[in-house]
Amino acid sequence: MARILPFVIFIICVNICSSIDDTRSQLSTYDRIRKDGYPSEKYDLITSDGYILQINRIPRGKNDYLDFFRQRPVVFLQHGLQSSASSFLGIGVNSSLAYYLADSGFDVWIGNARGVKNSRRHLFLSPDNDDTKRQFWDFSFEEVALIDLPHMIDFALSRTRQKKLHYVGHSQGGTVFLILNSRKPEYNDKIASAHLLAGVGYQNDFPNWVLSQAAARTDDILALTSLFGFVEILAPPRNEKPNLGELIESVNNMEIPKNKNDLFELIYLIMKTMEEISRAKESVSGAAVKQYAHYGQNIRDKSFRSFDHGLLGNLLKYGRYTPPEYDLKNIKVNMTMHYTLGDILLHERDVLAMAEVIPNCKVRKVARKDFSHTDFLLARDTRELVFDYLIDDLKRRK
After folding, report:
1. How many CA atoms lie within 13 A of 291 on its CB side?
2. What is the largest CA-CA distance in the chain?
3. Annotated catalytic residue: which of 40, 86, 171, 193?
4. pTM score of the predicted model
5. Does an H or E element contain 272, and which?
6. Is residue 116 over pLDDT 50?
7. Residue 348 contacts by C-beta under 8 Å, 6 or more apart in sequence?
8. Is 171 a catalytic residue?
């Protein structure tokens, strides 16, 4: 219990600190695009299992009025874990990939996976109600890949009356692309090209030692968080501010088999960290604990495969004792995998290993050693280091 208690405390602090600074009070993605001077559209889609997803669209550039009815190449953007469509709007108009693409002549569509702030809805299940929230949040990135993503891609193609689109995915947006095209290879024919920005797949050489230690206890952590009713990370703020004094008192009353001063120092540091994260405002969104657990399992097992439900669960779910692997050889799309040596969530060796398996894949290392996992969308020099190359490549494929 002592070894995994800090991770339980972490989940508690994440949920509480997310309400210290109301990150959901910012403009919606739709309104933010309009405020920045671009044409903005939004659509609600219903998945086969009842989730209501919002998909955003920037059909043309800010000053592109002359060719109003001209058909433009479609680019679909998919966000990473703990993020949403807003992440592609950048920290300003000049740093936004979505706006840069629109001004460069593309029809830009931006997806929102289930559970994020624009898609935190369901026909029958409430993400907050104690009776239904466990069922609502019972998904990993595989459901995003095999249910949400193909539905959004098909809608964008149908709406624009085009047969193919270009795909750009960041982090988990890369993960779901790899899974979709490996498990549903027919979608290879719908993708003209793909650019994965720190797209996470193989994790045999996961570079973060601390997270690796947590991943080794993934199943225990998932069981405990479920026991305490924590199924979502960074839930939207409640109407009432949490009483932090009551939290500290409740933890103080717990029987903790370790030095309490060390524990409260840990709580303080985690809460300060989450306050800093909350300052990212609309770029930060919620996620299911199970999504993190799925990554944790793959890090622990050095694999890229479906969620592990245990021997009996796997037998019932997959008809076998172990989860099936994602076969990347099925991916035929012309793909570029962008990576950086400063990424603490994706190692260069894993990127190169994936590129060896995927038939039409090339890799591109960002020319700044300390470029990070989130810098792909938030750094001020991302335009010159990543976006210029990406857009030039898309223009060659028009």
Report:
1. 26
2. 70
3. 171
4. 0.84
5. helix 260-278
6. yes
7. 339, 341, 365
8. yes
Which pLDDT does position 209 carry in this prediction? 85
Q: What tokens does 147 get?
A: 């249910």
DSSP one-letter string for 110-140: E---TTSTTS-EESS--SS-TTTHHHHT---
What tokens were used for 337?
A: 């995998």
Asked if residues 389 and 366 have their Cβ atoms less than 8 Å apart, the reply is no
**Catalytic-residue membership of 309:** no
Name, in order, each residue with C-beta under 8 angstroms of 56's C-beta and a sequence gap of 6 or more.
29, 30, 33, 40, 41, 42, 85, 109, 110, 112, 118
Stated as kind and residue range, the H or E segment containing 221 is helix 218-227
Q: What H or E segment, with its residue span, contains residue 160?
A: helix 149-160
**Residue found under tokens 């995003």:** 144
The distance from CA 51 to its chain's CA centroid, rounded to whole angstroms, is 17
What is the amino acid identity at position 179? Answer: I
Q: What confidence tens digit (pLDDT) does each residue in 324-366 have?
A: 999 999 999 999 999 999 999 999 999 999 999 999 999 999 9
Amino acid code (one letter) for 277:
I
Token pair recorded at residue 122: 């369901």
The active-site residue, picked from 79, 122, 195, 373, is 373
What the block records as the tokens of 113 is 């996976």
